[in-house]
Amino acid sequence: MVTSMTGFAARRGEGAGASWAWEIRAVNGKGLDLRLRLPDGIDGLEPALRAEVGKRMQRGNVSLGLKLVRDAGAEALQVNAAALRAVLAALKQVEQTAMELDVSLSPASTAEVLAQRGVLEGGTVDEDSAPLLAALLADLPALLTEFQAMRAAEGRALADILRAQTDTIARLAADARALAEARRENAAATLRDNLARILANADGIDEARVAQELALLAVKSDVTEELDRLDAHVTSARALLADTAPIGRKLDFLMQEFNREANTLCSKSQNPDLTRVGLDLKVTIDQMREQVQNVE
């Protein structure tokens, strides 16, 4: 089963004297890079989130944010004036720099300012965050399930594209095999003619040595092994696309092998039609490689 590394989900919830909004999104990545934006004062939340996301993802750059609003009367919050001034000063500096660079920024909301670390402090919830932590972790699976569903849906569409591209590679490899077979017959006749011409115009030449050199040239131009390996890679790709485990790294390596055989085929072709098929192979493999970058 192909799973895409890209995805998005958002969810709202409430409980334990607070309401909250989750947002998670992911893009391509070589490994799993999880970035969290969380409110302060909830002991154990970050490691728990990292553990839960890590169970469901192997690769991708993931951003998970949580915005939390305490219910009125649930706690006595105070604004840290020094921290607030520091945040506002930083925002002003960012805005000035953006204006100098002619970059447009959307203004920060009051809630976003208050959500910055250290701006709000105090309150009874900070003293015992266990109920809130439990409520958040109970709500998290629904968010991750929705997130995984989107990644799976994109993965199914991606799998269809990769299967079609694999079929194209298989068809082009078959075309190349037919052209190589036709070229082999012509090449054999050409070698015989060249050998006869050399022997007719040279005295004292070692016929066996000449024949050996011509045979080596024929071997160097033979593309049977490259075509056999292309067929084997096609079989491997189809098997991977039917696998239920994460296959992105394996597919990425297989694309390198595909490309290596296509390059060798082009370098050994010595035939315009075979070269054309080799170039078509390279284009298809490159397109497939770009799609594979999205696979977990």
- Overall mean pLDDT score? 86
Total beta-strand segments? 6
- Distance between the terminal alpha carbons, to the nearest Å? 10 Å
Unreliable spans are none
Based on helices, strands and strand pairing, what is the structural class? Answer: alpha+beta
Classify the helix fraction into a percent range.
Answer: 55-70%
User: What is the number of helices?
Assistant: 8
| Biggest β-sheet description | 4 strands, mixed
- Order of strands, main sheet, comes to 1-2-4-3
Please provide a written account of the structure.
- The chain is of the alpha+beta class and about 300 residues long.
- Among the domains are: about 45 residues; about 140 residues, no CATH class.
- Helices cover about 60% and strands about 15% of the residues.
- It contains 8 helices and 6 strands; from the N terminus they run E-E-E-H-E-E-H-H-E-H-H-H-H-H.
- A 4-stranded mixed β-sheet has the order 1-2-4-3, with helices on one face. The chain has a two-stranded antiparallel sheet with strand order 5-6.
- The protein is elongated, with a radius of gyration of 31 Å.
How would you concisely characterize the structure shown here?
Helices cover 61% and strands 14% of the residues.
